[in-house]
Amino acid sequence: MRIDLHSHSSVSDGTQPPADVVRRAHAAGVGVLALTDHDTVGGHPEAVRALPPGMTLVRGMELSCRLGGRSLHLLAYLFDPGEPALAAERRRIRDDRAHRARGMVERLGRLGAPVTWEAVQRITGESVPGRPHIARAMVEAGVVTSVEAAFTPEWIGAGGRAYVDRYALDAVVAVGLVRAAGGVPVLAHPRASRRGYVFTDEEIARLAGAGLAGVETDHPDHTAADRAHLRGLAADLGLVTTGASDDHGALTGHRLGAETTAPESYEALLSQATGARPDRAPAG
């Protein structure tokens, strides 16, 4: 059974609707898929309805956090979506995302880039606006030639000319909120240096002390050396190791199932969840 515990749909910054993500995962041989859109659970109902016979969906999200002044992403699985404290933080983060996106479009305009808020809204649709949506609007407007080219200091890369900072939870607080909601927190891509997500062993140990359950070791942005080191660190800290594609549809080359989680790691995560259970479609 192939288990992919990190994927995105068009409800956040992926390019495919949740139903399409599920169908593509099934076609790729994935038997268990976690849908982990950024700061939202809005795609889960559609994904559950689209489950092929015998396939399992793990409801999750990727929570925007901050640690040591840097952006950190926390995967949260099988929490109670109605738990008030975590639900309130999700709303605050989503509201700030829209405010932030408008701010970046305004800065792009002052830089002479013909990107309109209407174009960003059209690309975003019903999802939460984010930098990937703005980047796609920049490509459409001819400002840059690719989405990747937008994520530079010249444009909307971290600290860039059109970059606007955002609200994010303190990572230690976020771990506690996920646990209080019955969920299981796992640190996403902690050695993705290409995207600036690099955290020290000491920082990961601090999160483990706060209740972190696992660390995403097998990720497309991690080198073989990264993976080996993280596995050793996880063993020392008593953390579960996971693997996942972090698929964003066309933006990442439709790579569902490219990285997977071992069944025993998946079961270890399930054993810690009290907020919800996976959704499994009856076998045909």
From TrEMBL:
Species annotation: Actinoallomurus spadix
Matches recorded under PANTHER family: EXONUCLEASE, POLYMERASE_HISTIDINOL PHOSPHATASE N-TERMINAL DOMAIN-CONTAINING PROTEIN
Family annotation (SUPFAM superfamilies): PHP domain-like
Classification via InterPro entries: PHP_dom, PHP_domain, Pol/His_phosphatase_N, Pol/histidinol_Pase-like
Full protein name: PHP domain-containing protein
Coiled-coil parts of chain: none
Pfam families xrefs: PHP
Annotated Polymerase/histidinol phosphatase N-terminal domain residues: 3-67
Gene3D superfamilies: 1.10.150.650, Metal-dependent hydrolases
